[in-house]
Amino acid sequence: MNAAAMFVKLVSVNSLKTLLKLSSRSFSSSCAAVNLKGRSFLTLKDFSSDEIQRLLWVSGDLKHRIKHQQQYLPLLQGKSIAMIFEKRSTRTRMSTETGFSLLGGHPCFLTSQDIHLGVNESCSDTARVLSGFCDIVLARVYSHSTLEDLDEAASIPIINGLSDLYHPIQILADFLTLQEHYGSLRGLTVSWIGDGNNVLHSFMMTAAKLGVHLRIATPKGYEPVQSVIQEAQKLSKEHGTQLLLTSDPMEAAHGSNVLVTDTWVSMGQEEEKKKRLKDFEGYQITMKTGSVCKPDWTFLHCLPRKMEEVDDEVFYSSRSLVFPEAENRKWTIMGLVVSLLTDYTPQTPMLKF
């Protein structure tokens, strides 16, 4: 190579490095400028790439400062959260109660036996009453329309703790877990093998925005909602990621970094159990499923887990991230409520995306 060519190559390489640095600074600046105070959190469909990255950054920052540096951060001192639970839960209840308390706030747990939501009192009236008592509401409900009714009437933020359509707080924990494990998210391939349910819907509203490819295998008749598929296809095209929908689990798993599944029989579907188990034959995640993945493949499950969904060899292996994933439900709900209720600025460096 002559001197002139060497000079051109050197300039090109240095220019690329400069461009990448500027791009990184621009990206960091746009994410750092995000302010979510006062927003509700019903679906990740309503949140941009920068906003989701900001939530993950705040969550990671709180985890580092509180868990690893042993700092006390009373960011929610004097604030309270109403926790409405139409459906029982372990992780959602414990993560919210312990996380909100750890930040100095007061959680109030309300079941359908404690309040009259939509029965003796309308959702609208309940929302107005709670708006005068507390600062934020987390509702774990059967119908997504209940959340929309609460949000329309409330003057405080409403958080979706789970609905029949979406489970966005679970997805924040999943992506924080993957970010911690792999170092960054962009370019990862996540394969969902299971039911076309609320957790999958939230993955579909988020993955492309973080530069993550998504491969989905569901049995015929158990596909995601069509409107969610259309929105996911639009997001994939917009962000330059791949989206695959198939009924073949091994096809979905091929070349993946992450295998994900969930219960095949959700609460309220117990009468369908026998048929569902038959329809999902061949969908159990095993080491054989992982054999077509990338060498660094890992496994996620939002819990509780049943044997038919994933065998012990995978679930309790070093590839399984399910227990760090469960713990991150706490740090991400903390990051979320802090972002929706305060002007907090993270003190640790921004995570790599």
What does this structure look like?
The chain has 353 residues and is α/β, with parallel strands linked by helices. The protein has two domains: 44-167 and 330-341, Rossmann fold; 168-263 and 274-326, Rossmann fold (3-Layer(aba) Sandwich). Helix content is 45%, strand content 12%. It contains 13 helices and nine strands. The chain has helices spanning 3-32, 49-68, 91-102, 123-133, 144-153, 168-182, 198-204, 226-239, 249-253, 273-279, 287-290, 312-315, 322-341; strands at residues 80-85, 106-111, 136-140, 158-162, 189-193, 213-217, 243-246, 258-261, 298-301. The protein has a five-stranded parallel sheet. A four-stranded parallel sheet has the order 2-1-3-4, with helices on both faces. Strand 5, helix 7 (198-204) and strand 6 form a beta-alpha-beta unit. Helix 1 packs across helix 2 and helix 6 (168-182) packs across helix 13. The radius of gyration is 21 Å and the shape is globular. It is an enzyme of class 2 (transferase). Residues 187-339 form the Aspartate/ornithine carbamoyltransferase Asp/Orn-binding domain. Homotrimer.
